[in-house]
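Re: the 117-residue chain
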Amino acid sequence: MKKVLSIVTLALAVVAISAFMFACVPDTIESAKTKMGNAGYAVAGYSVDAEGVEGTFTAVKLTGDNAGTIFAVIFDTEENAKKFYDAFPNSDDYDYFKQNAKWVYFGSEAAIKVFEG
């Protein structure tokens, strides 16, 4: 019985860690805008003529559950996103400035939870 319990516990730990490590950020600018719009945010997308940038958007929700704001940039590759993120001094010191896959984003805790969820 202890062996079965250990295996089940290990399996649950692996699932929990996988879910944490692979947050469900959108894979395109359009899916990101749709996701935030469906959560009640006002969304505006912007074209940026910069090498490696596929697009940007801002989402704002002023009242209610998950009120907050986010600004996000999607790059053509994860490597370009990481370079951009690393260009900011002490980027790892900020809880609400993140790089995940091809995205670099910052904003309120509530908006980031929606974006990553």
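Residues 25-116 form a domain with the Double Stranded RNA Binding Domain fold (CATH 3.30.160).
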